[in-house]
């Protein structure tokens, strides 16, 4: 098998559903050509060294998968027979550790775990035959991760260069109540086209994810600077100078001057306490003005700027009437106190959204977990619309 770190192969970058347009923007900005875009990711060609750059830079991605081989496999035996031919001894150290993940739709497989075991067996048998020693394997994603994508009779095997998902940016040690995934939060901010120079206001901030992502974006600070372990580091041939050079470039690109006002408020003192701890872990606590207050008392500097709400959606029974009042108050607050801003409300409840009482100028589609959501945009004109 060719030396993977310098050989360009097919790479699949995955993301949560509906985030691929924002992932596409990021990948193009890094100078890569995209071969194919789909709902949960995109495809390009890159070496494993180039995957290091992708892992460190991307805010909206989940995994960066580097293809090793693709072949026909109608059943587990054919899968094993193809996998054992690959030069695993040149990828996984014989005294190393690896794990297997998979996405399988094959009529001969009733559980993906069985497919994972066949992959593991082929790798272990090959390395033991060549080196006389077998590597360890298990469920942790802290070292080498091998990913199987098997649809009908077509199988692809990848190095998952990320390991633990990139969608979590590593600062949220205290998630708080109903947190928004970091990659989703970053995507919603990218959807607003916020310039990182005007105020960003986040009432009802909860554990602070939106405000923290805004602070990272305003600094041009990549989430990869918050993380020191990736799966690619454990593959044979890894050159740590490539990783540290990329980190150096990212540090040089970070601009901590001229950060606009970023204000995060919540009525819960506990929520603000959690948000401050998360912001401190991310290294941005000093850039965010945290306020304990009702959202309608949040400080709003003169516009233009962006104000974004991520209120409760009222999934639980009996919460609707109270939330209807809250959503109406949100609309009144934006209309009266946020003139010159663009207002945004992220919600999974279209009925409650009607209570805002403003006409949305745009609707962006997202999922929060499995829940179908919308980011609603409101133009909050200063004076009449014509002016």
UniProtKB/TrEMBL annotation:
<dbReference type="GO" id="GO:0032259">
    <property type="term" value="P:methylation"/>
</dbReference>
<dbReference type="InterPro" id="IPR029063">
    <property type="entry name" value="SAM-dependent_MTases_sf"/>
</dbReference>
<keyword id="KW-0694">RNA-binding</keyword>
<dbReference type="Pfam" id="PF02926">
    <property type="entry name" value="THUMP"/>
</dbReference>
<dbReference type="InterPro" id="IPR004114">
    <property type="entry name" value="THUMP_dom"/>
</dbReference>
<feature type="domain" description="THUMP">
    <location>
        <begin position="50"/>
        <end position="161"/>
    </location>
</feature>
<keyword id="KW-0489">Methyltransferase</keyword>
<dbReference type="GO" id="GO:0008168">
    <property type="term" value="F:methyltransferase activity"/>
</dbReference>
<protein>
    <submittedName>
        <fullName>Class I SAM-dependent RNA methyltransferase</fullName>
    </submittedName>
</protein>
<dbReference type="Pfam" id="PF01170">
    <property type="entry name" value="UPF0020"/>
</dbReference>
<keyword id="KW-0808">Transferase</keyword>
<dbReference type="InterPro" id="IPR000241">
    <property type="entry name" value="RlmKL-like_Mtase"/>
</dbReference>
């Amino acid at each position: 098998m060719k030396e993977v770190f310098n050989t360009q192969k097919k790479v699949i970058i995955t993301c949560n559903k509906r985030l691929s347009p924002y992932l596409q923007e990021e990948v193009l900005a890094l100078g890569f050509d995209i071969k194919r875009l789909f709902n949960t990711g995109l495809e390009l060609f890159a070496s494993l060294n180039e995957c290091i750059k992708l892992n460190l830079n991307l805010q909206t991605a989940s995994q960066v998968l580097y293809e090793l081989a693709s072949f026909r496999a109608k059943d587990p035996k054919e899968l094993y027979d193809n996998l054992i031919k690959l030069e695993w001894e040149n990828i996984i150290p014989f005294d190393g550790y690896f794990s297997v993940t998979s996405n399988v739709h094959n009529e001969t497989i009733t559980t993906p775990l069985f497919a994972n075991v066949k992959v593991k067996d082929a790798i272990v048998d090959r390395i033991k035959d060549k080196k006389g020693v077998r590597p360890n394997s298990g469920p942790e994603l802290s070292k080498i991760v091998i990913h199987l994508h098997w649809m009908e009779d077509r199988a692809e095997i990848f190095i998952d260069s990320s390991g633990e998902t990139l969608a979590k940016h590593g600062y949220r040690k205290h998630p708080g109540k109903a947190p928004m995934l970091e990659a989703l939060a970053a995507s919603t901010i990218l959807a607003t086209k916020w310039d990182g120079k005007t105020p960003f206001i986040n009432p009802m901030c909860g554990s602070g994810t939106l405000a923290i992502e805004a602070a990272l974006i305003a600094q041009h600070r990549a989430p990869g600077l918050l993380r020191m372990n990736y799966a690619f580091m454990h593959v044979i041939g890894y050159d740590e100078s490539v990783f540290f050079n990329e980190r150096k470039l990212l540090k040089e690109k970070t601009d901590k001057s001229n950060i606009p006002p970023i204000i995060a408020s919540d009525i819960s003192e506990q929520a603000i306490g959690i948000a401050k701890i998360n912001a401190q872990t991310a290294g941005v606590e000093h850039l965010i003005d945290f306020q304990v207050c009702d959202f309608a008392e949040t400080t709003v500097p003169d516009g233009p700027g962006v104000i974004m709400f991520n209120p409760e959606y009222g999934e639980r029974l009996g919460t609707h009437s109270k939330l209807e009042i809250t959503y109406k108050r949100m609309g009144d607050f934006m209309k009266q106190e946020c003139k010159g801003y663009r207002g945004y409300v992220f919600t999974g409840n279209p009925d409650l959204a009607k209570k805002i009482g403003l006409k949305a100028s745009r609707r962006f589609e997202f999922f929060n977990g499995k829940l179908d959501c919308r980011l609603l945009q409101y133009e909050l004109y200063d004076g009449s619309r014509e002016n």
